[in-house]
Amino acid sequence: MTQPQLVDCGFDAALGAIGGKWKTHILWEIHLKPRRFGELKRRLPGISEKVLAQQLREMEADDLVRREVFPGAVLKVEYSVTEYGTTLNAAVVGLAQWGKGHQRRLAAKSRTAAAA
Fold first, then answer.
1. pLDDT tens by residue, 13-58
2. 1 domain-assigned
3. Considering the domain boundaries, does residue 108 fall inside one?
4. Of 37, 23, 19, which Cα lies nearest the Cα of 76?
5. Residue pLDDT, tens place only, 50-93
6. Contacts for 44-49 with beta carbons within 8 Å, 24 or more apart?
7. Rounded to whole angstroms, how far apart are CA atoms 38 and 43?
8. First vs last Cα of the chain: how many Å apart?
9. Is 38 contained in some domain?
10. Number of domains in the chain
11. Does residue 6 fall inside a structural domain?
């Protein structure tokens, strides 16, 4: 007997673009204003340089992030969110709001279980 095929509802593509521990945090930071690599590293405690570079490259390939190199004696590179990347704002904010509600629900459930 064959397994039923999953309908392509877009979740795989969406999670591929923003999945993982850091991508939504990076997008949020560069949504606020363009940031240099070192600034992103400081604002995201716990992320390694290797992971940050990898995540930025992946998001740049997905047209979510723009990498701009400024000419000069000192190399200056800034990362900003693309116009296409801003289309994720509503989804990411909505997901964050759901997450906060979920945290409150779990905390209330934990308090109820502890009181019993």
1. 888 888 888 999 999 999 989 999 999 999 999 999 999 999 999 9
2. no
3. yes
4. 37
5. 999 999 999 999 999 999 999 989 889 999 999 999 999 888 88
6. 47/22
7. 9
8. 47
9. yes
10. 1
11. no
Look-up: residue for tokens 């877009």? 10
Helix (H, G, I), strand (E, B) or coil at 63: coil
Structure tokens at 1: 């007997």
Q: Which amino acid is at 110?
A: S
Specify the pTM: 0.78
According to DSSP, residue 44 is labeled S
Q: What length is written for the chain?
A: 116
User: Could you tell me which residues come within 8 angstroms of residue 105 by beta carbon, excluding any fewer than 6 positions away?
Assistant: none
Domain that holds residue 32: 11-115
Find the CATH number of the domain harbouring 89: 1.10.10.10
